[in-house]
């Protein structure tokens, strides 16, 4: 299917409401329009890539001389703009003759918008129509076929070349229009090809906004929680999934971002969820989990693991091995010769604020047995576990040991979240 033409853009209701008058370029109405932008400065041509219809209220043309106005039109034509639409009557009382003359000479479509219509209404309607036409006419067949929601989630998760108007238009086509102030949270679910768990969680949350699709490796979703909702949004999402997800599923929750923070932040929370899922599936948990039910975790729960593996485990393997050997070498040597669980005990103890009661309960051992282990650790390392200067290094090293060991055990495991 061909791209949307300038003639078709002019037929859209918000454009017609502006009462456009074509002053030049009558023979170019069937040229394709790649995007619709608005700009109030006459240097706007420098930001065009070709095929755009540029909207302006004419303010940048009011205090310039005739030659500058002609040069502005020439630059637009040189950038292969699809056309120029100028609001006439407010900032600019009438279309300057030299602008009309230059546009006619170059064959550039020039429109005078006689009635004030907010440009955001025009750009939203036009760009949504452009995206819809482009999606329905794609010649490249992707694994998700005509599923526009899956295509958008995949592009966001892969951080494809996008822009904010395109993302908003494509999201709106999929029925996803988060309100101002909403908090967006990416979610990745492994162990099913069905979206039922996500739908049930959303109902549990009281009908949050939702984009979701199933992929070969997992289900990917973007949830929108109202900004007026009180409490921790990440914890709320986790609790919802713990209550409705089937046993055996692994659910990873990204961080919360503002709906109005830009598409790169939308991408960030989806990518965080996907990275967290991969770590949850390949790295042994730091603490014993529930024997039954789904495994539900979050990007902040695995924040240290994510930082240690930033750029990939293989790229960091040698650095992590050096960190582990430097901080925990004596413990590793002891464990190689004795049946013990000292490194894991150390990590659980550090992660729980060095609380003997909490650590012993999680490890299912008595407090006296825990004290004996801690004394052995301190003796081997020649230090005091409670030393504040050592907490960060010891925790990072214990976590790195678990990451490297887990990745070695799961060599070759790769998720196929998106193609």
Strand adjacency order, main sheet: 1-5-4-3-2
The domain count comes to 3
Percentage of residues in strands: 5-15%
Query: Any idea what the radius of gyration is?
Result: 29 Å
What coarse outline follows from CA principal-axis ratios? Answer: elongated
The residue-averaged pLDDT reads 85
Topology:
Elements: H1 6-10, H2 13-17, E1 20-24, E2 35-38, E3 52-56, H3 59-62, H4 66-78, E4 83-87, H5 97-106, E5 110-113, H6 119-136, H7 148-157, H8 164-173, E6 183-190, H9 196-204, E7 209-214, E8 219-225, H10 233-244, E9 250-258, H11 263-282, E10 295-298, H12 303-308, H13 313-337, H14 342-351, H15 356-363, H16 367-381, H17 388-409
Parallel strand pairs: 2-3, 3-4, 4-5, 9-10
Antiparallel strand pairs: 1-5, 6-8, 6-9, 7-8
